[in-house]
Amino acid sequence: MKQKILFYLPAILLSALLIQGCYKDKGNYTYNMPPRPELSLDTLYYATLGDSLIIDPHVKVAGNPHLAYEWKISVPSDVNIDVIDSSASFRILFTLDAMRYGAQLTVINQDNGMKYFYKFVVSGQTAFAKGTTVLTVQNGKTILSFVKPDSTVQADIFNVFNTGIALPTQPTQLVAVPEWQFPKSVKQYWIFGKGGPNTGVRVDANNFIQDRFFKDHFFDAPDTINPFKLIPNMLNVMSGVVNGRLYEGSRNTWNLAPIYGMFSGGAVGDYDLSGEIAYVYSVPDEPRAPSAYIAFDRVKYQFLRFFPTGADPVFIGTSYAVEGDAFDPKNVGMPIERLLHATNGICFAYCRAADKTLYELNFRAQFIQGAEPIGFKALQKRPFPRPELVKADTKWDITAAQIIYFTSGDVVYRYNPGNNDFRQLTTTFNGKAITMMKLLDNNTLAVGVENTLYYLNVSTGVFGTVIKKYDGLPGAPVDMAERGLN
């Protein structure tokens, strides 16, 4: 037994010394990490087709080690290969398609083998990357034109590149569809109208070449296609009312696939929609995709709820609780003329009774599934205070602050429903009837009359002074869209 104790004693003493050593150390080490290079590299570079793309970042690193570089532009194509370079500055003749490309610069410290990665984006563009596209009608002919930033009008640009292809007659909308996840970009334009062999035509925003008819945007197209109202979102798809049915572009595939954004059969249900529809977003300033639809049945005269899915929307109908007795949203009793959505489900609807009285309905539709319960707050119903100003061709729009702008012949009015304040904007249009009006943001109002597009300042305390105007447009403006100007 004594022999065993003597045998274990050195082991015990050694363990105690090891434990004591670990306790004193406490892992307090000093690391000398090599310094990371500092680069003057932007996150976004624009490259014009046929021009040189030069990226020459200034690289600074302590100790002046030997550095190597690897540049890469990732090209998502079966034909093109990635663009790779190993110079300190990146210089190429840009010949890729006009789209956005993910890119990366790798800086290699050859003295210690460390690699540092810097990601950025290259946005390929053409001569049409910046400017304003304007849809007009002249003597019954639909015309698409482009206005350069210097105000030069390239009239009837569609016919320059599309011989023998007809745009829709009786044009109603120009829809600028953004690139996926880039809300301020434009990838395609859709031109919609009420007549002609094609009621919808799509063109590539980079060259204005027609690349799809609306009938080919359906997996199974209906015999007759009447687009009422279409609105895009930042996921590169449209949704809206066609033939009284609600459609939503399919997102159940890769966003560069040819079938991405196409329409299926529409929302299933017993309804017949007006073109007056509102899209409500979970984040109002980020229209990623609708979180709810507020629609109006043009036969039953009732407000309906639809739920988006990324494919066919789901018809919820009138399955919502009603708060307030100003009016019954499930039985309005008259057709709708205009639905204005301010923000967060707050709306103003203008409905015409059988005796021709124009009513203003104010409500909040909380149709987004979330923290708040689903419901409809009927806030107010009253005759419109100035019905004599509303004409058959009156145009309407609304700001997020619930300031309404509407046209009356050759005049634009600013209307605050909160205090019944009506103000005529200061700019006059030489007696020309207003054919288009559109809020570009809360501070800028675009107004179109024969041959001219005006930009008016409607910021706080300003009542429609001219910011700029484009003359020389062929015909009367119907709609417009900007690209690369903000």
UniProtKB/TrEMBL annotation:
Protein's name in the database: PKD-like family protein
PROSITE patterns xref list: PROKAR_LIPOPROTEIN
Pfam families referenced in this protein's UniProt entry, alphabetically: PKD_2 (PF16407)
Organism: Filimonas zeae
Top-level taxon in the UniProt lineage: Bacteria
